[in-house]
Specification:
Layout (H helix, E strand, L loop, with lengths): L1 H6 L1 E5 L4 H12 L4 E5 L14 E4 L5 H10 L2 E6 L6 H6 L1 H21 L4 E6 L23 H19 L3 E6 L2 H5 L15
Parallel strand pairs: 1-2, 1-4, 2-3, 4-5, 5-6
Helix pairs in contact: 3-5, 5-6
């Protein structure tokens, strides 16, 4: 596995954000080389370690993403960039369809055009709406009840279709924010119980 880790780097979108920055740390811990792109709308430059390549930019900028893919030998993308506030998505749905769906489409196209073979997408349990069972299973019907959940589900559909048409392996992750909080806290801050 070590040899494979040295063959390509992993582009982390939204890598200066809450979950994305934890993914960067986990990748480094596992011996991978992350490269971060973040427009710093909600992320923080200080959240990215100094020894990680950081590009301030937008995933919708296809020329910039193509340049990063080519120059940094990107073989996988972990996509965390996007808007995440449910009430805001109801008040301003077009923002969410643009940030979470339109920009993801541009990123997916850049990945295909750049020959990236692996795409890990950070989705949300909001794609399930109000499920009848808990915990939610992978085969639970997706019935989002807000623009945030629907914008993420639309990206899942795009990825499914693109993977069927191109040489792209996709992984869909549903991540709870409390899970990200317990990573990299150490002995002085033991794992926490999820909030109720």
């Amino acid at each position: 596995m070590t040899a494979a880790k040295n063959n390509f780097k992993i582009l982390v979108t939204g890598g200066a954000g809450y979950i994305g920055s934890h993914a960067v740390l986990a990748l480094k811990d596992a011996g991978w080389t992350p490269v971060v792109i973040d427009n710093l709308t909600t992320g923080f430059r200080w959240a990215v370690p100094d020894d990680v390549i950081f590009v301030e930019g937008d995933i919708e900028d296809s020329a910039l993403v193509a340049q990063i893919i080519a120059q940094q030998n990107i073989g996988a993308i972990m996509h965390f960039a996007g808007s995440i506030i449910v009430p805001e998505s109801v008040e301003n749905p077009l923002k969410y369809y643009h940030n979470n769906t339109v920009k993801s489409r541009a990123l997916i196209e850049s990945a295909v055009n750049g020959g990236v073979k692996h795409f890990i997408f950070s989705s949300t349990a909001a794609t399930y709406g109000v499920p009848e069972e808990s915990p939610v299973r992978e085969d639970t019907p997706t019935l989002p009840i807000n623009p945030y959940g629907l914008s993420k589900l639309m990206t899942e559909y795009m990825l499914r279709d693109v993977a069927a048409a191109h040489d792209l392996t996709i992984v869909r992750c549903v991540i709870s924010t409390w899970q990200a909080r317990i990573h990299r806290r150490g002995p002085d801050n033991p794992p926490q119980e999820p909030p109720i």
